[in-house]
Amino acid sequence: MNFFICSNSVLPRLRMELAYDGRFEFMKTSHFYAAIQNADVTFSMWDDHDVLKISDAPCNIVLTDQDSCDERYIIEYAWKKRDTKIPGQYRGRFTITFKDDIYEFNQVYDGGDLIMPIYEDLTIFIKP
Predict the structure, then answer these.
(1) Most buried of the four, 15, 37, 59, 99, by CB within 10 Å?
(2) What's the predicted TM-score (pTM) here?
(3) Which residue, 75, 92, 91, 93, is CA-closest to 36?
């Protein structure tokens, strides 16, 4: 996925929705959404030379505006001006750290880190 933002800008915010790839059973139900509300979500970003530009910055968990019976959440990172100061191409990653275990159909998924499953790598372009 490609994301474009102008240098020294804070908008648009970076918003991502989890990919339902079928690898994790707990992601198929509302149990995941209950668990993510009690999780820490962070964003990190690296430049072309693997120099860390943003390290584990906190993210927001936002209820989507979908017309659905199920509540769905997206993850949102609010840029700071220093984040977008230097134009270039960057790689981004979201990490979810669950504070509690997730219980689903007599299975327990241990709390801990989950690198956010997305369909493709996140590339951020900061334009001059």
Answers:
(1) 59
(2) 0.81
(3) 75
